[in-house]
Amino acid sequence: RPRSHTVTTTSSSFTANLSASSSTLAYDKEFLRTVPGLLMVTEIILGLLVWTLIAGTEYFLYPAFGWVMFVAVFYWVLTVFFLIIYMTMTYTRIPQVPWTMVGLCFNGSAFVLYLIAAIVDASSVTKDLDNHNYNSWAASSFFAFVVTSCYAGNTYFSFISWRSRTLQ
């Protein structure tokens, strides 16, 4: 005996808005002129220096440098990702995400883990360990501390932004 069934389809306003608004991408030219934008570009450039200086050595023989590489590459990729989100103003197209909280958590975790990685990097650099790689490791340690200070600055600005949103 044949069964009859009814199929009902509905369209949500979210998918309609998403498809309508994704036809053009916005570009925020002024973001790179702000202090957080400049800090983010500095984090990308100097973070790249940190992990390339270590990657050009035999870092895999020393677990401490493996940790520094993980933190440097992980946050470098995420920072590039967030720069693209801010430059294309994607955050305005996805209002369901609490972007100020995401930025605060990202920058805060980057600051803490980069600080740990910079300390590990600096404490692991000795001429006795491997004289051939000493200069690269010492330079990576210096740049890791500079990147850490950039993430600290961005954490501050993210906190100010988050605080102003929560007080409204």
Automatic annotation (TrEMBL):
Molecular function per GO: structural constituent of myelin sheath
Signal peptide: none
Keywords: Membrane, Transmembrane, Transmembrane helix
Residues of the MARVEL domain: 31-163
Places the protein is found: Membrane
Single GO cellular component term: membrane
Keyword Nucleotidyltransferase belongs to the record: no
Gene Ontology BP terms: myelination
Topology of this chain in the membrane: Multi-pass membrane protein
Protein name: CKLF8 protein
Gene: Cmtm8
